[in-house]
Design a protein that fits this description.
The complex is a heterodimer of chains A (566) and B (105). Chain A is α/β, with parallel strands linked by helices and 566 residues long. Chain A contains 15 helices and 25 strands. Helix content of chain B is 42%, strand content 23%. The chains are: A alpha/beta (566), B alpha+beta (105).
């Protein structure tokens, strides 16, 4: 049972975590345990730092002491260099977690007089390893031996022996090498170290530099083959994976208000989805920032934290401008709910921007993030780079459940439905702002171009920037499309006029009807009176007739009596 | 110039240090070669110290020893290092800077 377990463990290449942010993710665990790894790159590409951080993190975070054999920098220089990254080399050496050995050769002092070997170096490394009980070794840059020692044939054989020896001792080694022309390293170190080769690169495009890392080779392991941007800041190296591994973020059906009630109504009556990404695009002066600010202010009123990245205006300028349309941003800033970060995009490269944003988001933990505008990032990178950066940013925010609002400037010349940085497909909701020119004036309109997962309005709505924020107005559709501005006003007054006319007409007709009704009723009364008088006449005649009959009967009786007949 | 230099060298003691790592064939050869050269050119005014790095590994740092065997000329100044088994006598003499003195009668 135990044997089988052992064998199983042997089958998989064991890895040593470097502790370098992001690197262990792309290599799925770190560097190969007990094997040498070659780090090559041009001058200033961060090779030494990579090696040093590997040792420092190993010593402080993973309990693996290390040995740094420096062929270039002295102990004093190195102590100063890494102090800026927050590592205390002297303390680590005093506590026997790290051993620093400076190996120096002066070519002018050395004369070669026959066969030699590098046993002296072996002994020094071995001694250093024994002193601290090292598991990790860094040789930086062993190639400088070629400049210091004559007879490259002996040197090559000895280096081959050195790497084999390190492997036998089970050391996880990092060997740095200066990039040569046409080869990975100046002296072809890649011939000897073939387990894992990592290339560091430092490129400048458009005056902005970006560091990139690529894993050329990793025997016995799968690895990401992309070029990964990385940065060096006060916390050391941070490698940024291009994209997250999959689209796995969970979503909520919770809705949050846009801060504009009538816009919420257009978005299925409830506003945006929490954790979605919203794009607000439009030409200059269409009110993108105002909508963004109103959204942020509404979030803060709900008690959510909001991070506002501004690439165009300073915080105080935004606050003053928004005050003029009645959006209060000062109060949430004072309460610590809203934080501004205003920087010119050209301050540093895309990667640094991304990392800085990551860091701020991790620290501040906002529910809402506004980036105003993302199109300005196009200044420091080409479209593809910016898109990749935004994909990573959006992925991160989705994973954290942050609702993100980006504004982007559309050039008047290009199609409205084309965003500068091509991120429309990445966003869930797209609000398009445009100016409608009609009757000698420009008016702002807004419509929802898309909104994933909700029934949204198809109307183009005019909106006004009033002293109580953004206000969406009713829609008036005239013969030439939507009416805005004064055309809308005149249409409104026309409609009011028509209403009035109609009302008056109705009144008039009503009165006439009333009059006729009265006349008719009078007529009816007269006729009824006539009828009644006729009826009375008939009744009188009938009574007369009856009286006469009675009289006649009485007369007859009297006559009979008088005649004494029968 | 030349006679002056010879005088100076004569007045000095040659302090030589040979770094080895155990009793390897190269170390033994180096010691034998060194002994020969010194006897021939520096008789009576030299001192050889042999340092075995296997016994004292820390000593390698002081003189920045990488290659084995390495001969270090501590005195006279300046410091000189000669690597290899010292089989090439010509180059040892050049390296130790005793060639000029030896050629003079």
């Amino acid at each position: 049972m135990a044997a089988r377990k052992n064998r199983k463990r042997l089958e998989v290449l064991e890895k040593v975590p470097t502790g370098i942010t992001g690197f262990d993710e792309i290599t799925q665990g770190g560097l190969p345990r007990g094997r040498p790894t070659l780090i090559c790159g041009g001058p200033g590409s961060g090779k030494t730092l990579f090696g040093m951080e590997f040792l420092m993190r190993g010593a402080t975070e993973y309990g693996e002491p290390g040995v740094f054999i420096s062929f270039e920098e002295t102990m004093e220089e190195m102590t100063k260099n890494v102090a800026s990254l927050g590592f205390d080399l002297k303390h680590l050496m005093a506590t026997k977690k790290l051993f620093f050995e400076y190996v120096h050769i002066e070519r002018s002092e050395i004369e070669e007089t026959g066969a030699y070997d590098l046993e002296g170096l072996f002994i020094r490394i071995n001694d250093a390893i024994t002193i601290v009980g090292a598991k990790r070794v860094v040789l930086d840059t062993i190639e400088s031996l070629f400049a210091g020692l004559p007879n490259p044939f002996i040197l090559r054989a000895e280096l081959r022996r050195l790497f084999r020896w390190l492997k036998k001792k089970g050391m996880t080694a990092v060997i740095t090498g200066e990039q040569g022309t046409g080869s990975l390293t100046r002296h072809g170190m890649e011939e000897y170290i073939s387990d894992c080769v990592i290339l560091l690169d430092h490129r400048v495009s458009g005056q902005v530099s970006t560091r990139r890392l690529r894993i050329l080779k990793y025997r016995g392991s799968t690895h990401g083959a992309n070029e990964y941007p990385f940065l060096i800041d006060e916390k050391g190296i941070t490698v940024l994976p291009i994209t997250s591994l999959g689209l796995r973020h969970t979503v909520t059906s919770q809705r949050i208000s846009s801060g504009i009630p009538r816009l919420d109504a257009m978005l299925g009556g409830k506003g945006f989805f929490r954790g979605s990404s919203i794009l607000v695009s439009g030409t200059a002066g269409t009110g993108k920032t105002s909508i963004a600010a109103q959204f942020a202010a509404a979030g803060c009123r709900r008690g959510e934290k909001c991070l506002f990245f501004s690439f165009e205006e300073s915080p105080s300028q935004i606050m003053r401008n928004m005050q003029s349309i009645g959006v209060d941003l000062q109060t949430p800033v004072k309460r610590g709910l809203l934080e501004f970060h205003a920087e010119r995009p050209t301050l540093y490269g895309l990667e640094t921007h991304l990392a800085a944003m990551h860091k701020l988001m991790q620290k501040f933990k906002p529910g809402i993030v506004v980036i105003d505008p993302v199109s300005n990032l196009g200044m420091v990178g080409n479209e593809a780079d910016v898109k990749l950066m935004l994909i990573r940013l959006i992925d991160y925010m989705k994973e954290e459940g942050i609702t993100a609002l980006f504004t982007t400037l559309t050039n008047p010349g290009s199609a409205l439905e084309q965003t500068e940085v091509g991120i429309s497909s990445l966003t869930d909701t797209w609000l398009l702002l445009r100016d409608i020119e009609l009757g000698g004036e420009r008016n702002r309109t807004l419509y929802v171009l898309k909104s994933r997962g909700m029934a949204h309005s198809n109307q183009i709505r005019e909106f006004l920037l009033t002293d109580h924020g953004v206000d969406l107005l009713d829609v008036y559709i005239g013969p030439s499309g939507v009416l805005t501005g004064t055309a809308r006003l005149s249409q409104e007054s026309k409609e009011r006029e028509a209403d009035k006319m109609f009302f008056q007409d109705l009144e008039c007709k009503n009165l006439r009807l009333e009059n006729r009704k009265k006349a008719m009723e009078a007529q009816i009364a007269a006729m009824r009176a006539e009828l009644e008088s006729e009826a009375a006449e008939v009744k009188r005649l009938k009574e007369q007739e009856l009286a006469r009959k009675k009289e006649r009967t009485a007369l007859k009786k009297t006559m009979v009596r008088m005649r004494k007949a029968d | 110039m030349q006679p002056k230099k010879v005088k100076k060298i004569k007045a000095e003691v040659w302090d030589l240090r040979l770094y080895v790592a155990g009793q390897t064939s190269k170390s033994i050869a180096a010691f034998a070669n060194l002994k020969n050269i010194c006897e021939q050119h520096l008789k009576g005014k030299y001192r050889i110290e042999i340092i075995d790095l296997l016994k004292n590994p820390r000593l390698a740092q002081g003189d920045q020893i990488l290659a084995i065997p390495t001969l270090v000329r501590k005195l006279p100044q300046p410091l000189k290092k000669i690597i290899g088994d010292l089989s090439n006598t010509e180059r040892v003499l050049v390296g130790l800077d005793i060639r000029s003195g030896a050629t003079l009668p």
